[in-house]
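Now for a specimen:

…
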Amino acid sequence: MGRGRAKAKQTKVARQLKYYTPDTDLSALERELHRDTSSPVREPARVTEPDEYDDYGKWASGER
């Protein structure tokens, strides 16, 4: 019992999602797709401090 109100809400939300058409910024999409790929992609900085799993990694690789 009491499912009718919840189901009506779900139906309403599903209908809004189905028929909602947001404005698309096509120029931003074009800039993203055609960005300069010759520039190097920055990699995240490596963590140099040891963590709690370093000992396991040494043990698993046989370095002990």
Remarks:
- Residues 2-61 form one domain.
- The helical segments are 3-19, 26-33, 54-61.
- The longest helix spans residues 3-19.
